[in-house]
Amino acid sequence: LLSSLCKQTYVHFEVIVVEDGSEIPAKEIVGRYQGRLDLHYYVISNSGPGMARNHGARQVRGEYLLILDSDVVLPSTWLEHIHDSLNHYPVDAFGGPDKAHASFSPIQKAINYAMTSFLTTGGIRGGKKKLDKFYPRSFNMGIRRDVYERLGGFSGMRYGEDIDFSIRIMEAGYRTRLFPSAWVYHKRRTDLTQFFRQVRHSGEARIALNRKHPGSLKLVHCLPALFTFSVCLLVIGSFFCWLFLVPLIIYALLLFVDAMFRNKCDLRVGLLS
Questions:
Q1: What is the 3-state secondary structure of the chain?
Q2: Which residues share a beta bridge with 94?
Q3: CA dist 128 to 63, 110, 133, 138, 142, Å?
Q4: Which positions ≥6 away from 27 have C-beta within 8 Å?
Q5: Where do the domains of the chain lie, and which CATH numbers do they carry?
Q6: 215 with 119: CB under 8 angstroms?
Q7: CA trace torsion 39, 59, 25, 184 (10° rounding)
Q8: CB within 8 A of 36, min separation 6: which ones?
Q9: Which residues, in sequence order, are bridge partners of residue 20?
């Protein structure tokens, strides 16, 4: 991430790094970029992602806060696209989509497909086709500093704190927008165990969010559970008639073909997806 920030074509920015309970300290890595970036490094106790971002936001001097996760890599024109987009659409908060870099492993590309495809998540993470409104997420999110301060920043939720913040932004009447050109490479989990843990936490967060914001749970958010339930029913039904497997086979083939062609005909990505 820091290396990609050094390559930005738009250069008027500062960088705030907040380390919050990392297993491997980032001090040495940050030190390599101290002379190349307007870089400030802070270490706090294990307070959670929301509180860490709030701590970083208090140090910011600029008009806008741009929030990124440490596992993203930026194209060189990322900041330039944001600057241009804000000139055309001076919104209060915004976000961008995420992609998989060509250098990512097949499993990372497959997980990226599973998280971003319209066929799997309904396009709610910034796709052009979508079944629900776009909520900026903390892996690639921007907001006016004064709006951030008025809303009190992120809550103390351990998971889903970025969706909670986006809901609060919209409920307060502020303008939000997806900037399609402000995409990032998102280096996702490296194995299925980590991915399963992430999906489980996301499911838990959706329930907590609906309790905090009644009505925020939509049908599209229930698709993973409905899909799992449907698969179980179809498998059970196949013991009585093999035709019950046909819908499952068609859907699996559709995912395989779509994922493969979206990743330069990589059979491994198609199979893993």
A1: CHHHHCCCCCCCCCEEEEEECCCCCCHHHHHCCCCCCCEEEEEECCCCHHHHHHHHHCCCCCCEEEEECCCEECCCCHHHHHHHHHHHCCCCEEECCEECCCCCCHHHHHHHHHHHCHHHHCCCCCCCCCCCCCCCCCCEEEEEHHHHHHHCCCCCCCCCHHHHHHHHHHHCCCCEEECCCCCEEECCCCCHHHHHHHHHHHHHHHHHHHHHCCCCCCHHHHHHHHHHHHHHHHHHHHCCCHHHHHHHHHHHHHHHHHHHHHCCCCHHHHHHC
A2: 142, 177
A3: 28, 19, 11, 19, 19
A4: 19, 41, 43
A5: 1-105+123-189 (3.90.550.10)
A6: no
A7: -70
A8: 6
A9: 44
Question: Which residue type is seen at 19?
Answer: E
- Could you report the per-residue pLDDT of 101-119, keeping only the tens digit for each? 888 888 888 888 888 887 7
Q: HSE, CB side, 13 Å, CA atoms: give it for residue 230.
A: 12
Token pair 């399963």 in the structure block, residue: 196
> For residue range 185-209, what is the model confidence (pLDDT) as tens digits?
988 767 778 888 888 888 888 888 8
Nearest residue to 175 via CA among 163, 166, 184: 166
Tell me the per-residue pLDDT of 29-76, one tens digit each, with 9 for 90 and over: 999 998 899 999 999 888 888 999 999 999 999 999 999 998 899 999
User: Quick one: how far is CA 176 from the chain centroid?
Assistant: 16
Give the C-alpha separation, 121 to 127, whole Å: 10
Q: In one letter, which amino acid is 79?
A: L
